[in-house]
């Protein structure tokens, strides 16, 4: 009986000692694991890892852009009802008047003379009213000449009214143009008290933008 109890006590002591030793070994292993450090990669291994990382990022970005382009292309095709691409043509510019649409000064001078005779035949010179009459004549003459059919021309009208007496008067003008297409007309009308001078310049619109 005594021998049996001693053996059981020895077994208990051995078990307790084994358990304590196991705890000590586990604590040491945990301490060693916490103190372990991953060695830094240097040299070719580190460069290879960086390159592989950059390649992965670049491939991801490229795939995202390609997907966006494909989605935009699908949206554009869906917006077109028939699915056909739209063609974009270059602009066509005209640098001169149409054929047969150049200025005819004879017809312009005839129209201007008729307007002056109808408007000034019974008019008497007055410094108070002649300024407004000159403005009205300029607008009327310009609109009438436009109706003759010169779509690409800029029409400039100058009307000068003066008192008719013993004095002399001279007018002059200057313009930059192309002699083959641009032109001018000059009409003079006088009654008992008024002398009217109308000068019209017809310049192609293209030259108005390129003139210095």
Automatic annotation (TrEMBL):
InterPro entries: Tctex-1-like, Tctex-1-like_sf. Residues 1-50 are annotated as: Disordered. Residues 23-35 have a biased composition (Basic and acidic residues). One of its GO terms (biological process) is microtubule-based movement. GO terms for cellular component: cytoplasm; cytoplasmic dynein complex. GO terms for molecular function: dynein intermediate chain binding. It holds the Pfam family Tctex-1. Belongs to the dynein light chain Tctex-type family. This is Tctex1 domain-containing protein 1-A-like. It comes from Crassostrea virginica.
């Amino acid at each position: 009986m005594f021998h049996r109890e001693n053996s059981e006590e020895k077994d208990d002591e051995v078990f307790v000692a084994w358990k304590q030793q196991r705890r000590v070994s586990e604590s040491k292993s945990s301490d060693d694991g916490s103190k372990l450090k991953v060695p830094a990669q240097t040299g070719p291994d580190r460069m290879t890892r960086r390159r592989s990382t950059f390649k992965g990022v670049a491939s991801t970005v490229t795939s995202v852009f390609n997907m966006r382009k494909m989605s935009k292309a699908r949206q554009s095709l869906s917006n077109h009802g028939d699915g056909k691409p739209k063609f974009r043509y270059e602009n066509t510019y005209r640098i001169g008047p149409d054929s047969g649409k150049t200025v005819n000064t004879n017809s312009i001078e005839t129209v201007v003379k008729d307007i002056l005779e109808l408007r000034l035949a019974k008019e008497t010179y007055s410094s108070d009213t002649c300024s407004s009459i000159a403005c009205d004549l300029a607008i009327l003459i310009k609109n009438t000449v436009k109706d003759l059919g010169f779509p690409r021309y800029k029409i400039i009208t100058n009307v000068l009214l003066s008192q008719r007496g013993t004095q002399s008067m001279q007018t002059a003008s200057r313009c930059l143009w192309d002699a083959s297409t641009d032109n001018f007309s000059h009409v003079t009308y006088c009654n008992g008290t008024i002398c009217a001078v109308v000068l019209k310049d017809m310049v192609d619109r293209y030259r108005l933008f390129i003139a210095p």
